[in-house]
Amino acid sequence: MEVLIRLGVVVALAIVAVAVARAAGRWQRPSHPPVDVSDLAPTPGIVVFTSTDCSSCKAALAAVEATGAQVREVTWELEGATLEDRGVEAVPLTVVVDTAGRAVGQVAGVPPRRWLRAAWKRATADEMPDAGDQRR
């Protein structure tokens, strides 16, 4: 019985620690200053800054490719100057670009599927026909 009480106390403390860490913002997605990709990106499309030895980069690229969007991968080992010129501080970094070449979303780390869907929807919004343009 005493073991169960101790285990319960440990679990309760762990839950409190997680709640405090979240409240303090320690487990939030990393942020990154905006990056200009207007001359790199297909329009609409997605640019992913990666490194060949980065497992998170592989996961980010797989998530982005699952959208069916045109993807431009910029790899540190092959295009390091491009990353430096744009101020890319960490990889993976994903930037979604609309039909006009404007960034409509940027996320550091592996992009969540919900975020990718929403950003891609914003990027391709002007490709959808207006109600007045529909021919019957």
Describe it for me?
The structure is a single chain. The chain has 136 residues and is α+β, with helices and mostly antiparallel strands. It folds into two domains: 1-28; 45-127, 3-Layer(aba) Sandwich (Glutaredoxin), CATH 3.40.30. The chain is 40% helix and 16% strand. A four-stranded mixed β-sheet has the order 2-1-3-4. A hairpin with a 5-residue loop joins strand 3 (93-97) and strand 4. The N and C termini lie far apart (74 Å).
Describe the SSE topology.
Elements: H1 2-23, E1 45-50, H2 55-65, E2 71-75, H3 76-86, E3 93-97, E4 103-108, H4 113-123
CATH class of the largest domain: Alpha Beta
CATH superfamily of the largest domain: Glutaredoxin
Query: How many domains, in number, for the residues?
Result: 2
- Runs in which pLDDT lies below 50 for 5 or more consecutive residues are 128-136
> What class would the helix/strand composition place it in?
alpha+beta
Instruction: Note the main sheet.
Output: 4 strands, mixed
Beta-strand portion reads: 15-25%
What's the SSE pattern?
HEHEHEEH
Give the spatial strand order of the biggest sheet.
2-1-3-4
Overall mean pLDDT stands at 85
- The counted number of beta strands is 4
> In angstroms, what separates the terminal alpha carbons?
74 Å
Can you name the CATH architecture of the largest domain? 3-Layer(aba) Sandwich
Q: What is the overall silhouette?
A: elongated
CATH-defined fold name of the largest domain: Glutaredoxin
